[in-house]
Design a protein that fits this description.
The protein is an alpha/beta fold and about 475 residues long. It is about 35% helix and about 15% strand. It binds pyridoxal-5'-phosphate. Pyridoxal-5'-phosphate binds near residues 110, 165, 259, 288 and 290. It catalyses: (S)-4-amino-5-oxopentanoate = 5-aminolevulinate.
Length: about 475
């Protein structure tokens, strides 16, 4: 449940005994996993002069050039106040804005940066690949390598198609599920986000909710008429939909752990119940693992929970910071995809050598022993520290984590679904958010987003963050 710390294989680290992994300052260019020692020291100096003047000027220009000044609405600061911060560079677990402020980053480019930003090995591999060109528009060997890695890692995937974003992956997988079953209806859950394609813009979670838009104008009714919705963690609502649409449901798509309504975990019998219902009713089960893939464990949520869907979507991490997405599943279903089969889906830059290279090197690093233990240790310490500090200061707060994904809500909880999440005190979150920014900590600018840690986050980062939270909790 989201109101408790998720049970995990590795025990909690006491927040009073930080493990110093290295005392040696590491230069920004040569830094790898523990690159933040020098940077965290400078945080205290920086925040004394915290100003966002250059950021504000740049953003005022951006607003005239691009809608809302951003190229993705989740970057807006509408729900936390102030203006988005214009960033200059990233390295490891840290980001620097154009005013020179430094932040410990828990957004990780919204998920991809799981081994840390601008990893030296990934950058070097990209430089090598680039010498041979950036896009062939023809098969390249690197596609085989990443495909083999994905197939070996993700239990449900026997064949994979690479695309350029999570949105594209979800669009493709829905068409495939409809083509394979010959049925048109799809069940999605309130507060789950599956990209911005028309059929999914129904009760679509964070980005839409944060802006206060119920749905989006421009989405034709015809595009969503076959989209059925149910509250997350509610098996009886799903059963009722199957009963009232007998023989019509092609698939259920869901985030196996929700990150787009804040962090919400599935109830113990939810995923197995959904698996059972889909089998009973001849529908496919699709796990949207764009966020959870390679994050909750190397095999994603399906490996973590031991539930195998028919189809899976991926994105974010498998592109190592370059634009990528993928969908895959049983061979028999995937062979419907063109040119092997009749279901059409294509992409000019799909499987390009740069994205494949960044993905391959990111997965290689993740596969090294200890990666998920590290994510688990630092994230448990972080979320426990934040919850303890919040409660000590008298706030209603609940939260949880699994591996390198976490979240907390300003409400007593429990939070089982999007309606529960909406009961949280978003105004208080806004005050907390602004306070944390001034302390040099960068969370996603919405109460309805999950947070992410990386292999580059150190115990020092976590201790700094908890100390900042203790201070800010007392002020809000
Ligand atoms: C679960 C999930 N599915 C799909 C998407 C869409 O991915 P993209 O932003 O790459 O189009 C996202 C994006 O955050 C996501 O979290």
């Amino acid at each position: 449940m989201a109101n408790t710390i998720a049970s995990v294989a590795v025990g909690m680290i006491s927040s009073s005994t930080p493990k110093l992994l290295s005392q040696r300052p590491i230069s920004r260019s040569s830094s790898r996993r523990f690159s933040t020692i020098k940077m965290t020291v400078s945080l205290d100096q920086k925040k004394k002069n915290f100003t966002l003047q250059k950021s504000e000027e740049a953003f005022n220009v951006a607003k005239e050039l691009m809608p809302g000044g951003v190229n993705s609405p989740v970057r807006a600061f509408k729900s936390v106040g102030g203006q988005p911060i214009v960033m200059d560079s990233v390295k490891g677990s840290h980001m620097w804005d154009i005013d020179g402020n430094e932040y410990i980053d828990y957004v990780g480019s919204w998920g991809p940066a799981i081994i840390g930003h601008a990893d030296d090995e990934v950058l070097a591999a990209l430089a090598e690949t680039m010498k041979k060109g950036t896009s062939f528009g023809a098969p390249c060997l690197l596609e085989n390598i990443l495909a083999e890695m994905v197939i070996a890692a993700v239990p449900s995937i026997e064949m994979v198609r690479f695309v350029n974003s999570g949105t594209e992956a979800c669009m493709g997988v829905l068409r495939l599920a409809r083509a394979y079953t010959g049925r048109m209806k799809v069940i999605k859950f309130e507060g789950c986000y599956h990209g911005h394609a028309d059929p999914f813009l129904v009760k679509a979670g964070s980005g839409v909710a944060t802006l206060g838009l119920p749905d989006s104008p421009g989405v034709p009714k015809a595009a969503t008429i076959d989209t059925l919705t149910a509250p997350y963690n509610d098996l009886s609502a799903v059963e009722a939909l199957f009963q009232s649409h007998k023989g019509e449901v092609a698939a259920i798509i869901l985030e196996p752990v929700v990150g787009n309504s804040g962090f919400i975990t599935p109830a113990p019998d939810f995923l197995s119940g959904i698996r059972k219902l889909t089998k009973e009713h001849g529908a496919l089960l699709i796990f949207d693992e764009v966020m959870t893939g390679f994050r909750l464990s190397y095999g994603g949520a399906q490996e973590y929970f031991g539930i195998t869907p028919d189809l899976t979507t991926l994105g974010k991490i498998i592109g190592g910071g370059l634009p990528v997405g993928a969908y895959g599943g049983k061979r028999e279903i995937m062979e419907m995809v063109a040119p092997a089969g009749p279901m059409y889906q294509a992409g000019t830059l799909s499987g390009n050598p740069l994205a494949m290279t960044a993905g391959i090197h990111t997965l290689r690093r993740l596969k090294e022993p200890g990666s998920y233990e590290h994510l688990n240790n630092i994230t448990s310490e972080l979320i426990q520290g934040i919850l303890d500090a919040g409660k000590k200061a008298g706030h209603a707060i609940c939260g949880g984590y699994i591996s390198g994904m976490f979240g907390f809500f300003f409400t007593e909880g429990p939070v089982y679904n999007f309606d529960d999440a909406k009961k949280c005190d978003t105004a208080k979150f806004g005050r907390f958010y602004r306070g944390m920014l001034e302390e040099g900590v960068y969370f996603a600018p919405s109460q309805f987003e999950a947070g992410f840690t990386s292999l580059a986050h150190t115990p020092e980062d976590i201790q700094k963050t908890i100390a900042a939270a203790e201070k800010v909790f007392r002020q809000i």
